[in-house]
Fold each of these.
Amino acid sequence: MSLHPSLQSYADAWTHSVEAISELVTPLAEGEWNRATPCPGWSVRDIVSHVIGVDCEMLGDPRPIHTLPRDLYHVQTEGQRYQEIQVDVRRHHTAPEMVSELEYTIIRRSRQLRNESREPGTIVRGPRGVEETLEYAMRRRAFDIWVHEQDLRRALGTPGNLDSPGAHVTRDMLLAILPKVVAKDAGAPANSAVVFDVHGPVEFLRTVRVDAEGKGTIDGAPSLGPAATIALDWETYVRLACGRTTPEAARDALKTEGDASLVEAILASFAVTP
């Protein structure tokens, strides 16, 4: 047996991004591994450590036994603390050690995916110790690793792959959350609509509609007389949604129309990653 067809796109997206990450970091000098990235509190080494750590958990490896230092200002929640273990345990690893472990993890994980025969609905223990379906775990993994590829690209000044397979998985993941952001988190009024017009390597126009009960839905049809319209480029959309920039810092990349207070409420709620 082989990978279920509905999972193949997620495996392909993971492969594309993890190989890109490997190509980015393999030639780096020791000092370059310490460069800060847009991911709060994490260096290039930290992001690669996270990539290795999560894929080791997907492989079923035991988690490291490690005590975190108390001065990690960016670690505020239990979820962040859980993730930081895999990162902090590698903070003193050398560049050759990092590259070697990354390459070995890619080989192991690629073999696991080639031999994966479980159904998409199979319940698995995903990263962070949460039980979820195999399909969701693989979709979220493809999303996560593409976002971290982009973190590394910005840190290293090597832009690219904004329209890769992982970008399209990311688009779908972020759009699925958008109705909650608009209707619940930002409190858009009942019987209103908000239009998002995104241009660039990944383009889309989506309308979030809020019904009489305050529930949000999303579709690709334009709205006549929306309460607000937010237009921006794809990279800015991702950076805002993943907490890599703030609405204030991204203001020049935003074009908005309609209810200004609603726009501000949406932008204030836009970051959805932990």
Note: The radius of gyration is 20 Å.
Amino acid sequence: MPELPEMENCKILLNQKIAGKRITNVIINREKSINVKAAEFLKKVKERKIETVDRRAKHLLLYLDNGYVLLLHLMLGGWMYYGTVKDKPDRSVQIQLSFGRQHLYFIGLRLGYLHLFTKEEVKKELAGLGPEPLAANFTFDTFSDLIENRRGMIKTTLVNQEFLSGIGNRYSDEIAWHAQLLPERTMNDLDSNEKRQLYQSIRFILQQAIQCGGYMDQPLFIGDTKTGGYEANMYVYNRAGEACKRCSALIVKEEISSRKTFYCKGCQR
């Protein structure tokens, strides 16, 4: 499932491609992927201009010039492609937004969705999310306040979207490795130095992943050489049996709270 870095990468690239452009046509092949009747969706989206694309947690928000917002969550298996009919992937498209001869295809939205809200409605929809870990105001003091009296494991705490938004299974493992902490360590067991290191690792790993284009292996458009660049730079995730890049011990895979988890027993304490 795409996490914060993947959606931030998409946000950056989509702003370059569609911000300021008018939606000339809308095709809905699967009405379960939207939250209103198709006729209403078409009426409020077609011929509207995309003002900007923003991100909140694992969601993308496409702001329209009529005050409405398209809220996208790709969930498991969802992805997007921007291009012409000629180079469209040979996959089922649930929703298509057209910008003249170029189209934004939403593919694999069996669990994902593209919902239409007003700006006030979208605020309420996302109100339960925790703070953005890369926000300028997300300081170490803010993090310390968040984890005070927390007793959950590092793994389960980091993926809790009400605690902190945007981190999922993959990056929780990468963060724990970078912080040299075992994922099953509990938050209340960390000393002050370990708390600071965990905070710094959250920021470092997410920023590094964004710079590398995240891990998704489908390019967003022809010539997209950035998307998916972080896959080759993963430290532990999906690397069970390989040597740790830091201490050369073997990376192991275990289940923690029903989640597959990768870590190094050699240097994570």
Note: The longest strand covers residues 50-56.
